[in-house]
Structures are given as structure tokens and as C-alpha cells.
From TrEMBL:
<comment type="similarity">
    <text>Belongs to the MMACHC family.</text>
</comment>
<dbReference type="GO" id="GO:0032451">
    <property type="term" value="F:demethylase activity"/>
</dbReference>
<keyword id="KW-0560">Oxidoreductase</keyword>
<keyword id="KW-0846">Cobalamin</keyword>
<dbReference type="Pfam" id="PF16690">
    <property type="entry name" value="MMACHC"/>
</dbReference>
<keyword id="KW-0521">NADP</keyword>
<dbReference type="GO" id="GO:0033787">
    <property type="term" value="F:cyanocobalamin reductase (cyanide-eliminating) (NADP+) activity"/>
</dbReference>
<keyword id="KW-0963">Cytoplasm</keyword>
<keyword id="KW-0170">Cobalt</keyword>
<dbReference type="GO" id="GO:0031419">
    <property type="term" value="F:cobalamin binding"/>
</dbReference>
<dbReference type="GO" id="GO:0005737">
    <property type="term" value="C:cytoplasm"/>
</dbReference>
<protein>
    <recommendedName>
        <fullName>Cyanocobalamin reductase / alkylcobalamin dealkylase</fullName>
        <ecNumber>1.16.1.6</ecNumber>
        <ecNumber>2.5.1.151</ecNumber>
    </recommendedName>
</protein>
<dbReference type="GO" id="GO:0009235">
    <property type="term" value="P:cobalamin metabolic process"/>
</dbReference>
<dbReference type="InterPro" id="IPR032037">
    <property type="entry name" value="MMACHC"/>
</dbReference>
<dbReference type="GO" id="GO:0071949">
    <property type="term" value="F:FAD binding"/>
</dbReference>
<keyword id="KW-0274">FAD</keyword>
<keyword id="KW-0288">FMN</keyword>
Length: 215
């Protein structure tokens, strides 16, 4: 429910819907690359003019909207910004309050070892660890669900030592991706997918066999 999200944030970040409004957090799992992105690129090769992943997600969510012709469905993407330069929604908070993934933050560590350093939080999924992404929010403004019970996210990094290790790796060594394997995972990105996301955005078109003109 939108109210679960608004309850944990300052008013400046609230979503402008009644508290009982139904919302879905959309995650992409490791298999998205082969099952969605590559087929999309092969089919829409000439129409790709911005980030291929963003366009692929947008394409699939527009198809979801088509399944509900009688409903208003609002979509917010993780990369969208308001004119104030604030994100349209805080993806990791949304994932946590929906029960999709646990958002580990500095406040989850009792004996904080970082002093005045800025420490960002990170979401971990009980099945995919850090090998997933939060892509969008689907909102159904005309559907109110006062009866919906809030599920707690799975606390899968549940020792102080592991949480410190996670936040250390994410904040200071994120490039090597070790934080993604903080728990034992059921599935992770393929080598091809790792290479794709490790490549600077401007060079990803070449990896997918797209011409630079398309960009």
C-alpha cells in the first residue's frame, strides 16, 4: 500500500495517492538479460535510441498496462527525476516496505565503525542477494486495499558482522561486486551480463551489436 511507503518517509518524498492505494514494486531478476533484453534488442534493433535496458523495461510494462484496459495504471521508473532533481520514488525504500527485499542501512548496525564517513544503504534479496535490480513502481489509483497486510522483508543478512561487511563492500568496493554474494544465492548474472553492466553506458550499444548511430 502507498501508505506503508509514505509512513517511513518525510513529506517531501510522499507519493500523491491515498494510503490504501495498491502498488507493485517491479524487480528484474538475473534471467531478465536473456529472457527479455536480448529478444527485445533483436526485435526492436532500429528503434533503440536510449538505454536499451530502460527501453526494454518500458516496453514490457506498457504491455502490462494493456492487460488492464479498464484500469488507470501509473508507472514510475527508477531513473525518473522530478523537476526538483529528487527521484520520483525511492526504489530501495519501496522494495523494503513491500517485503520484496531488505534495505540494509547504517542504522541496522549497532556498533557503527565508520565515524563521519557517508554510508549508503543497499537492498539484498533472499534468493538473488545483490544480483537483481529495482526497476519500477506500478500504481493502481482506483484500487483501494485497506485489508492488505504488510509482509516483512526477509532479513537474510542477520548478524552484525555480516551487515558491516555488506555495507563496507557496497560503499568502498562496489566495483568488484562482492557485496552481491553476501549470502548464498540461487542465481546470479551470467558472465555476458556482468560484462554488459560493467561497460560504460555509451559503449554498451557495441556489445549488443547496435550501431552508434542508433544512440
Amino acid at each position: 500500500k502507498v501508505g506503508w511507503y509514505n509512513a517511513v518517509l518525510q513529506p517531501a518524498f510522499h507519493l500523491p495517492y491515498p494510503d490504501d492505494t495498491l502498488a507493485f514494486v517491479v524487480l528484474s531478476t538475473p534471467s531478465m538479460f536473456d529472457k527479455a533484453l536480448k529478444p527485445f534488442v533483436n526485435k526492436e534493433r532500429l528503434k533503440i535510441i536510449r538505454d536499451p535496458v530502460d527501453q526494454c523495461i518500458s516496453h514490457h510494462l506498457s504491455r502490462v498496462k494493456e492487460k488492464f484496459p479498464d484500469q488507470r495504471v501509473d508507472v514510475m521508473f527508477d531513473y525518473e527525476m522530478l523537476p526538483s532533481r529528487k527521484p520520483r520514488f525511492l526504489a530501495q525504500t519501496a522494495a523494503h516496505v513491500s517485503g520484496a527485499a531488505y534495505y540494509y542501512q547504517r542504522k541496522d548496525v549497532k556498533l557503527d565503525p565508520w565515524g563521519k564517513k557517508k554510508i549508503c544503504g543497499v537492498c539484498i534479496h533472499p534468493k538473488y542477494g545483490g544480483w537483481f535490480a529495482i526497476r519500477a513502481l506500478l500504481l493502481f489509483p482506483d484500487i483501494q486495499v485497506p485489508f492488505l497486510e504488510q509482509p516483512a522483508p526477509v532479513d537474510c543478512v542477520n548478524t552484525e558482522e555480516k551487515r558491516i561487511e555488506l555495507l563496507e563492500q557496497f560503499n568502498f568496493h562496489w566495483q568488484d561486486g562482492r557485496y552481491r554474494d553476501i549470502i548464498e544465492v540461487k542465481e546470479r548474472y551470467s558472465e555476458e551480463q556482468k560484462a554488459y553492466f560493467a561497460t560504460p553506458p555509451a559503449e554498451r550499444f557495441r556489445l549488443l551489436g547496435l550501431s552508434q548511430e542508433a544512440q
